[in-house]
Prior knowledge:
Blueprint: E1 2-14, E2 22-32, E3 34-46, E4 52-64, E5 67-79, E6 84-90, E7 96-97, E8 103-111, E9 114-122
Amino acid sequence: MLAAGTFDVDLSPQEDITAPAGRMLIEKTYAGDLVGTGVGQMISKRTENGVAIYFAIEEVTAALDGKAGQFTLLHRGKMSAQEQSLDISILDGSGSNELSSISGTMRIIQQDGKHSYELDYAF
Protein backbone atom coordinates (compact mmCIF):
# COMPACT_ATOMS: atom_id res chain seq x y z
CA MET A 1 0.00 0.00 0.00
CA LEU A 2 1.14 3.56 -0.58
CA ALA A 3 0.54 6.52 1.75
CA ALA A 4 1.51 10.05 0.76
CA GLY A 5 1.44 13.51 2.27
CA THR A 6 3.52 16.33 3.65
CA PHE A 7 5.47 16.98 6.82
CA ASP A 8 6.99 19.87 8.69
CA VAL A 9 10.34 19.30 10.36
CA ASP A 10 12.24 21.16 13.07
CA LEU A 11 15.93 20.27 13.58
CA SER A 12 17.60 21.44 16.79
CA PRO A 13 21.43 21.25 16.80
CA GLN A 14 22.92 19.82 20.00
CA GLU A 15 26.24 20.86 21.52
CA ASP A 16 28.55 17.85 21.65
CA ILE A 17 31.90 19.63 21.73
CA THR A 18 34.14 16.56 22.04
CA ALA A 19 32.21 14.33 19.59
CA PRO A 20 33.57 13.95 16.03
CA ALA A 21 30.07 14.22 14.50
CA GLY A 22 27.10 16.57 14.67
CA ARG A 23 23.88 15.68 16.46
CA MET A 24 20.39 17.09 16.05
CA LEU A 25 17.02 16.49 17.64
CA ILE A 26 14.21 15.92 15.15
CA GLU A 27 10.56 16.93 15.55
CA LYS A 28 8.11 16.26 12.70
CA THR A 29 4.42 16.74 12.09
CA TYR A 30 2.94 14.47 9.40
CA ALA A 31 -0.20 15.26 7.37
CA GLY A 32 -1.97 13.42 4.58
CA ASP A 33 -2.43 9.65 4.71
CA LEU A 34 -0.11 9.43 7.74
CA VAL A 35 -1.29 11.80 10.49
CA GLY A 36 0.84 12.25 13.59
CA THR A 37 4.25 13.16 14.89
CA GLY A 38 7.83 11.94 14.74
CA VAL A 39 10.63 12.57 17.23
CA GLY A 40 14.20 11.39 17.03
CA GLN A 41 17.91 12.03 16.83
CA MET A 42 20.25 12.43 13.90
CA ILE A 43 24.02 11.91 13.85
CA SER A 44 25.90 13.37 10.88
CA LYS A 45 29.44 13.79 9.61
CA ARG A 46 30.82 15.91 6.75
CA THR A 47 34.41 15.47 5.59
CA GLU A 48 36.69 18.23 4.30
CA ASN A 49 36.28 16.95 0.73
CA GLY A 50 32.47 17.28 0.92
CA VAL A 51 31.35 13.70 1.56
CA ALA A 52 28.55 13.64 4.12
CA ILE A 53 26.65 10.88 5.88
CA TYR A 54 23.82 10.78 8.39
CA PHE A 55 21.94 8.24 10.44
CA ALA A 56 18.74 8.88 12.37
CA ILE A 57 16.25 7.04 14.52
CA GLU A 58 12.73 8.47 14.47
CA GLU A 59 9.84 7.33 16.66
CA VAL A 60 6.53 7.90 14.85
CA THR A 61 3.19 8.10 16.66
CA ALA A 62 0.42 8.30 14.08
CA ALA A 63 -2.75 7.09 12.45
CA LEU A 64 -2.49 5.28 9.12
CA ASP A 65 -5.19 3.48 7.15
CA GLY A 66 -7.64 3.89 10.05
CA LYS A 67 -5.20 2.36 12.54
CA ALA A 68 -3.34 4.15 15.35
CA GLY A 69 -0.02 3.24 16.92
CA GLN A 70 3.73 3.71 16.85
CA PHE A 71 6.69 2.53 14.81
CA THR A 72 10.38 3.34 14.35
CA LEU A 73 11.93 4.73 11.18
CA LEU A 74 15.63 4.17 10.47
CA HIS A 75 17.28 6.80 8.22
CA ARG A 76 20.59 6.36 6.39
CA GLY A 77 21.81 9.00 3.95
CA LYS A 78 25.02 9.64 2.02
CA MET A 79 26.09 12.48 -0.24
CA SER A 80 29.20 13.06 -2.36
CA ALA A 81 29.98 14.88 -5.58
CA GLN A 82 29.25 11.64 -7.48
CA GLU A 83 26.15 10.32 -5.73
CA GLN A 84 23.35 10.83 -3.25
CA SER A 85 21.35 8.14 -1.50
CA LEU A 86 18.72 8.07 1.22
CA ASP A 87 17.27 4.87 2.65
CA ILE A 88 14.46 5.05 5.20
CA SER A 89 12.86 1.87 6.49
CA ILE A 90 10.52 0.79 9.26
CA LEU A 91 12.43 -1.17 11.89
CA ASP A 92 11.15 -4.76 11.84
CA GLY A 93 9.12 -5.50 14.97
CA SER A 94 8.92 -1.86 16.09
CA GLY A 95 5.19 -1.40 15.43
CA SER A 96 2.81 -1.23 18.36
CA ASN A 97 -0.91 -1.04 19.06
CA GLU A 98 -2.92 -1.22 15.79
CA LEU A 99 0.31 -0.76 13.77
CA SER A 100 2.03 -3.74 15.41
CA SER A 101 2.60 -5.66 12.17
CA ILE A 102 3.67 -2.72 9.98
CA SER A 103 6.67 -2.97 7.65
CA GLY A 104 7.88 -0.84 4.76
CA THR A 105 10.01 1.98 3.43
CA MET A 106 9.67 5.75 3.14
CA ARG A 107 10.76 8.16 0.44
CA ILE A 108 11.26 11.87 1.22
CA ILE A 109 10.77 14.47 -1.50
CA GLN A 110 12.12 18.03 -1.07
CA GLN A 111 10.80 20.56 -3.55
CA ASP A 112 10.44 24.34 -3.39
CA GLY A 113 11.43 24.37 0.29
CA LYS A 114 8.67 21.92 1.27
CA HIS A 115 8.84 18.28 2.39
CA SER A 116 6.60 15.44 1.33
CA TYR A 117 6.72 11.68 1.81
CA GLU A 118 5.66 8.43 0.21
CA LEU A 119 5.32 5.50 2.60
CA ASP A 120 5.22 2.07 0.95
CA TYR A 121 3.87 -0.18 3.70
CA ALA A 122 2.19 -3.48 4.51
CA PHE A 123 0.51 -5.06 7.54
